[in-house]
Amino acid sequence: MRRPGLFARPLLRALLPAQHLLQALPRCFSATPGFAIDQRRVAGKIEIKTIDDKIAAFTLNEKIRSPKVQLKGLDGKLSEPQPLYKLLDSIDRTNQYVLQMNKPEQGEMAIVQIVTRADLIQRINRQEDMLKNQKRLEKEKRPKQLELNWAISANDLQLKMKQMQEFLKKGKKVELLLANKRHQRKASQAEAEALLKTVREKIEEVGAAEVVPMEGAILRQALLTVKMRGT
């Protein structure tokens, strides 16, 4: 006689809920961490401009909308008006371009020059150098900022005053922001007034001056804008 337990196991498996069976089955595939990272990298936008992209930013050849143009020579003189298509036919397209020099209004004629690829690259380099210099000058003009706590220690104040003096000697404008700091001891009215007096004495000592009246109020946020005299 057969044991009933041998038939009970298949029967119980058949009666199990489908979700238990799915959990018991091995996974056919799994997410690969490396693949997920690659997807994130692909999703990120990284703008890379080649030299050809930069050259394409110029108004060249067929991008010129004026049917007739005036050619600017090396001596700066303008030629008689001529059809653009004839000028394009006369250049070596492998290395030469017709470059629009102006932005003509409605009914005006475009002024153009014949340039090479090397000429355009030189123009790009000059423009980028000018932009870098402009950004550098703008950065140099920005005031240097120093933050002071109303309850600043003597050592920290000495360090801040030294930094202020160094910036001022370099011709920089300095903004001193006085404020309370969170989770730190708050100064008394007398301490704050003494700090402000010390700072102003140091400003006077180094030959600087406040360029505008102090903004804000004692024991709140206050701003002193300082610059060397005669600069």
Mean pLDDT score, rounded? 84
Which consecutive residue ranges, at least 5 long each, have pLDDT under 50? 10-16, 18-42
Strand content: 15-25%
Helix content: 40-55%
Count up the helices: 8
Rg over C-alpha atoms, rounded to the nearest angstrom:
37 Å
Q: Please name the fourth-level CATH homologous superfamily of the domain at 142-228.
A: Translation initiation factor 3 (IF-3), C-terminal domain
Sheet of most strands: 5 strands, mixed
The total of beta strands comes to 9
Measure the end-to-end span: 113 Å
Using the 3D structure, state the CATH architecture of the domain at 142-228. Answer: 2-Layer Sandwich
Q: At the third CATH level, what is the topology name of the domain at 142-228?
A: Translation Initiation Factor IF3
The succession of helices and strands, N to C, reads HHHHEEHEEHEHEHEEE
Global morphology: rod-shaped
CATH class of the domain at 142-228: Alpha Beta
Secondary-structure-derived class: alpha+beta
Descriptive overview:
GO terms for molecular function: ribosome binding; translation initiation factor activity. It comes from Cladophialophora psammophila CBS 110553. Pfam families: IF3_C (PF00707). This is Translation initiation factor 3 C-terminal domain-containing protein. The chain is of the alpha+beta class and 231 residues long. Among the domains are: 53-120, Ubiquitin-like (UB roll), CATH 3.10.20; 142-228, Translation initiation factor 3 (IF-3), C-terminal domain (Translation Initiation Factor IF3, 2-Layer Sandwich), CATH 3.30.110.10. It is 43% helix and 18% strand. The chain has eight helices and nine strands. The protein has helices at 5-15, 18-24, 33-43, 51-55, 84-90, 117-141, 154-169, 189-205, and strands at 68-71, 82-83, 96-100, 110-116, 144-149, 174-179, 208-210, 215-216, 222-228. Strands 5, 6, 7, 8 and 9 form a five-stranded mixed beta sheet that branches. It has a four-stranded mixed beta sheet with strand order 2-1-4-3. Strand 5, helix 7 (154-169) and strand 6 form a beta-alpha-beta unit. The radius of gyration is 37 Å and the shape is rod-shaped. It starts with a helix and ends with a strand. The relative contact order is 0.08. Residues 10-16 and 18-42 have low confidence and may be disordered.
